[in-house]
Design goal:
- By secondary structure, this protein is mainly α.
- Among the domains are: 173 residues, no CATH class; 109 residues, Orthogonal Bundle (Cytochrome Bc1 Complex, Chain D, domain 2), CATH 1.10.760.10.
- It has 17 helices and 4 strands.
- The protein has a two-stranded antiparallel sheet. Strands 3-4 form a two-stranded antiparallel sheet.
- Helix 1 packs across helix 7 and helix 13 packs across helix 16.
- The protein starts with a helix and ends with a helix.
Amino acid sequence: MILAPLLALLYFQFPDESASSLRDVTASDTLVEDGRYLASIGNCFSCHTKDDGPSFGGGVAFHVAGRSGRLPYGVIYSTNISPDAKTGIGAWTVGEFARAMRHGISADGDHLYPVFPYTSFIKVFDQDIAAIFAYLMSLEPVEYKPPENELPFPLNIRLNLVFWKWLFAENQVYQPDSDRTEEWNRGAYLIQGLGHCGACHSPRTFFLAEQSSLAFSGGTHFDEVEKGKIRLWSAVNLTSANSGLGFWSKTETAKYLKTGHNAKAGSFGPMNKVIVNSTQYLTESDADAMAEFLNSLPAITRNADQTISEEEQALGLSVYQEHCEECHLQSGRGAFLKAPPVAASAVVQAPEPWSLVNVILYGARVPTAAPVPFGAWEDMPAYMEKLNDPEVAALSNYLRTAWGNKGSSITVRDVAEQR
């Protein structure tokens, strides 16, 4: 029992990244362009570029909480990954970069917190890591040192991460499934690896590890609801459950990845950055491959089938008819080019209700980034000032029980804490 952690310490401190493809990399124009594309799939820009900050200079704040946490208990700031030699990764070798990507260890030997998703990036092939490194080295250096992390004891002791990795981190590059098609394998590689979709769309344990048995069935995380205001968000169920993508076609899934909308849903909140800075740049074939994989995920249903009182149903229906029905229609199917459906909506039925409450309180903004046209749906206004907490709770519970929808109950207190 004592030997295993010691071996783990040695392994995670000194993983072998000496493969020839990761030693001597010639940064050709083709390799750099490949890296640019792969870095976009990995959404490196969003996580390493703070608002109004220099590109890839780091400093984006990630607010961390456990499975049941309602308030952040710490902040981790993303690192500078520009080629600046002093504050970025300009002095790193491609092998050191690969070690960070796959094992969460920086060039100076520091263990990185898994808010950087090396538990997903472990799957990335050598040639793709080399391409990303070549692209990052081609960028303009940015001399900027992000703030120090704000973590309480004992979370601020990085040595703890050795044991966390020993318990929870994988250690295998993606292995193609010979029983699946080439397209499916490409989608699985991108979703599970560079795309790291499970980081947001999977629930986590008390120790903040992804629950592999419930992978892609929905998760929670902290992000802004408005400038400087941090609240919980829920990421939807991506499996083929009826409360997830069960009613989505492959074409609809691919379209959502490329544009942020389809006939079933529209992007808002934290997902907008994923669309604008990452998935809109997917090639058609890669979007199709990712859709092929996502639509093949076995259904995992985590929704509670609640029953609401007649009084709450009457209040929820009344609020819906006054404020929502014009756009989302009596049927809940949504009006063409105006509002997405709320019937059979993955957002409405998410295992945790936070994104639904947030969109009611704070509204929704359609992602915009030329040259891709995203404007299938209109922006949704905020109802923060129009509806009180009991009305928002009643409306939310009505939406989560009407038209065959299923979702756990939302209390007035839940709404108050999100407000």
